[in-house]
């Protein structure tokens, strides 16, 4: 059987047997310092920017998935998608709590970063992009393009989920346990639901070739937004006033690469991150093989934030 035939005959429903479990979490931010990784202000700011990037995107995931939910004919996949929506909504709420109760209360202006994300997901990638109605004949293709973007992003978040779940360096440096739990809890759930976006994309007609241009869009978009947002919040720190961080200046890119090269468990290298997208571009790509669900569940069962929320409900 040729690779093309194998690809065409691949399953188009849910590819997992286990049931994804949405969890409530509760984080307490009062004792978390800005340099939540001691001695690593650059890495701390860089990862803090994730709190600015994610909420609007995750709420957008939820809106689009709710829109296409009636089109799903595989019952197990429909269950997966509903659980995915609930997990993503909780992720957005958790990162919003970090924005409001952690970064803002420490006098870091994040409004500019949040407005960029709101424009991207609330306007550009909306059902009516920039307020322009999509012709009915192109409506499914617009949805499919956006579902492909989500599937591509979810591959990247699975890769980053593995990175943070198995990362012991931050903890060995004395990282704040609350922020550590946020990124590990989120990373573990990204591993748990890693198949859903790709399964849904294929189920509704997503093709192979489109993964290439979608990957280019996602890689450029995510890395640019990440660096730009990190530069903005970092630039408010007097320690970085002299370099004036900017996505358009070489310093922040060199510093990211330098820190990653010196110890790739403090920050992932940008080149490593790009290289991890290559597997997604193969015809035989299957997210099931990208990570171990058992390791993710083992962490999620012990997450302090999840336990704290369970106690609060009890």
Give an overview in words:
With 314 residues, the chain is an all-alpha fold. It contains 13 helices and no strands. It has helices at 3-8, 41-68, 75-103, 111-124, 136-165, 169-172, 177-192, 196-203, 210-234, 250-262, 270-275, 293-300, 304-313. Helix 2 (41-68) runs antiparallel to helix 3 (75-103). The radius of gyration is 19 Å and the shape is globular. The protein starts with a helix and ends with a helix.
Q: Which terms would index this structure?
A:
globular, mainly alpha, 314 residues, 13 helices
Helix fraction, binned, reads 55-70%
SS-derived structural category: mainly alpha
Overall pLDDT confidence: 93
Order of helices and strands: HHHHHHHHHHHHH
Distance between the termini: 55 Å
Dominant shape:
globular
What about the largest sheet?
none
Low-pLDDT residue spans: 1-10
User: In percent terms, what proportion of residues is strand?
Assistant: under 5%
Backbone CA Rg: 19 Å
Give the number of DSSP strands.
0
Helix count, DSSP H or I runs of 4 or more residues: 13
């Amino acid at each position: 059987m040729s690779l093309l035939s194998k690809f065409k005959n691949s399953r188009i429903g849910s590819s997992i047997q286990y049931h994804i479990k949405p969890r409530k979490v509760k984080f307490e931010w009062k004792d978390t310092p800005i340099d939540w990784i001691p001695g690593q202000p650059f890495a701390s700011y860089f990862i803090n920017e994730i709190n600015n990037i994610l909420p609007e995107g995750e709420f957008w995931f939820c809106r689009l998935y709710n829109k296409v939910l009636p089109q799903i004919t595989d019952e197990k996949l429909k269950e997966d998608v509903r659980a995915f929506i609930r997990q993503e909504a909780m992720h957005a709420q958790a990162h919003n709590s970090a924005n409001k109760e952690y970064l803002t209360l420490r006098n870091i202006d994040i409004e500019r970063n949040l407005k960029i994300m709101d424009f991207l997901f609330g306007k550009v990638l909306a059902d009516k992009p920039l307020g322009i109605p999509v012709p009915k004949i192109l409506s499914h293709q617009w949805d499919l393009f956006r579902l492909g973007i989500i599937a591509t992003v979810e591959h990247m978040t699975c890769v980053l989920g593995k990175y943070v779940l198995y990362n012991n360096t931050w903890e060995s440096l004395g990282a704040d346990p609350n922020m550590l739990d946020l990124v590990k809890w989120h990373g573990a759930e990204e591993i748990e639901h890693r198949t859903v976006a790709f399964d849904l994309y294929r189920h509704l007609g997503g093709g192979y070739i489109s993964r290439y241009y979608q990957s280019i869009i996602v890689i450029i978009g995510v890395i640019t937004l990440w660096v730009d947002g990190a530069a903005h919040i970092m630039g408010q720190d007097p320690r970085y006033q002299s370099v004036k961080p900017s996505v358009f200046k070489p310093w922040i890119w060199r510093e990211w690469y330098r820190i990653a090269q010196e110890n790739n468990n403090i920050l992932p290298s940008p080149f490593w991150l790009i290289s991890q997208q290559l597997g997604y571009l193969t015809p035989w790509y299957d997210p099931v093989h990208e990570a171990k669900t058992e390791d993710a569940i083992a962490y999620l069962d012990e997450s302090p934030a999840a336990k704290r929320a369970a106690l609060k409900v009890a």
